[in-house]
Amino acid sequence: MEDLQFNIKRSLTDNCSRKLIISQQRLSYEDKDIANDTFTQFDKDSILEYRYGVIWKRLYLTFGREYQIFIRNKQGEEIKIHFKSYFGSNKKKYREQYIAILNGLQLFYFDEITNQLLDRFHKDEEIQIGNVTINKEKVIIKQKGLISPKVIEIAWKDLKTKNYTTNFSIYSALIPTESNIAYRYFEDWNTAVLYSVIRTIQKH
């Protein structure tokens, strides 16, 4: 696959056009303002998780939007890619750029992470995505509680899912109101990976 390159202009006040390079070897983003050291780079094998979303800018009426994508590596370091559109300026262009970047991240990095998790699952290994543990019998979700963690266990035959623009929900058909947990693409790391893994297992 050929490298993907994007020129990111973050806002009207950012005079620089910053280069983003998505390649088979590494992710590189020109997010620094230091001479001779402008790029943050994550090697492919170090990339761990991502999250993304659109922030709407409102003051009585909606006047803009900010596209945000966060990528985190195994060392806990983050790359933040963001750019803004105000009053409809470049709205279509930025929307297409946002989708193209997400598709590139999926194609170059997160499809492989998803497939590795599925391979482990099919080898009867227990896998973990965030606070969700998945094995051949059930899905186990451990939520934080005020006193102690709340653990929800859902057998595969009872597990239901719903996907929306901003979140992915998992619940039990037996007790849907008590077991419904929503994972937000913008707030929860690797929600897209969780979606792909669970939906793939459900299909097969």
From the helix content, strand content and strand pairing, which structural class follows?
alpha+beta
Total of DSSP H or I helical runs spanning 4+ residues: 3
Helix content: 10-25%
| Main β sheet profile | 4 strands, antiparallel
Distance between the amino and carboxyl termini: 29 Å
Rg over CA atoms, rounded to whole Å, is: 19 Å
Strand ordering within the main sheet = 1-2-3-4
Provide the residue-averaged pLDDT. Answer: 91
- The number of E-state strands comes to 14
Give the strand content.
35-45%
Shape: globular
Strand/helix succession: EEEEEEEHEEEEEEHEH
Uncertain segments are none
Please give a quick description of this structure.
With 204 residues, the protein is an alpha+beta fold. The protein has helices at residues 91-122, 176-179, 191-203, and strands at residues 4-8, 18-22, 26-29, 40-43, 47-59, 61-73, 78-86, 127-129, 132-134, 138-143, 150-155, 159-163, 167-172, 181-184.
Describe this protein with a few key phrases.
single chain; 204 residues; alpha+beta; 3 helices; globular
How would you describe the overall organization of this protein?
24% of the residues lie in helices and 42% in strands. The chain is α+β, with helices and mostly antiparallel strands. A hairpin with a 1-residue loop joins strand 5 (47-59) and strand 6. The longest helix is centred in the middle third of the chain and has 32 residues, at 91-122. The chain is globular. The chain starts with a strand and ends with a helix. The model has no long low-confidence stretch (mean pLDDT 91).
